[in-house]
Amino acid sequence: MRPAPFLARWQSGPVVGGAFEARLVLDDPAWFAGHYPGAPIFPGTFLVEALFQAVLAVLGGEVRLDEVVACRFYSPLYPGDVLQASFTLKEASDGRMAIEVSATGRGKAAQVTLVVAPSTVPVAMGTSTSPLAAANAGGRVLDAAFIRGVLPHRPPALLLDSAFVPDQTGATPSLRARKAITPSEPCYAGADPNGSYPRLLIVESFCQACGLLRASAATGGESIGHAVADVMVPVVAKVAGLALKGDAKPGDELEHHVHLVVRTEEGAVFSGQTLVDGRVILNVGRVVAARARLG
Predict the structure, then answer these.
(1) Average model confidence (pLDDT) for the chain?
(2) Pick the CATH number of 131-293 from 1.10.1740.10, 2.60.15.10, 3.20.20.370, 3.10.129.10
(3) Which DSSP helix (H) or strand (E) runs through 217?
């Protein structure tokens, strides 16, 4: 994803009574690359980013996305779909603004609540609460081959390099996953190679780590491989309590600390944090993953 790829593509109406409507045609193949081969769907994190950029276009000026308070995905979006969105803007605390969004495609696509803030408002820094932050126990490394075997994502949509599952008999299943940020990534094409990594790509990388933990914790393991059409794959159904606390840049390494809260046959619930050099840049209250048949 390039910086602000959706900004100029939205067709927005005027703001009337704190509300506006907008329309976006999902016709750029780059938005679907690697997600997923043989069964392309618009990534949920891209949908949230697109909605934020619609708000950015209407508000003007410098604002940042601070929180995804809640988001529920109802149905996927496919290449060529027309995304219609209704926005309601409300003043929040500390000069911030809450945005309620209802998005539709072929049917209801998502219901989202965002909080944005002027870039001049200081960010409340996060504190690491993850027991994995200081973990030094034995365990197993999940390499690139394992990751490609259990996740349906492929480059450029695959945003994990490696992971480590500590020995945790009797403990809550957890995982530490890593993603190095480099200036050669597609999001930096034609942009400042030292600029901040798109915040929703940090969330996307975290969500992929959730899928990896679910697979590594499954009895007998799970394997998806490269063919995903007509295969049950993990998808994000809901997210809540996402607080974006900071940025990352090329040369940084994202370290996701993911915890499996509950797992069922139909899906799983995760929580956790993302750190850069010990600094928390993302707090995740809840990610609810389900399994869906694509194609």
Answers:
(1) 88
(2) 3.10.129.10
(3) helix 199-217
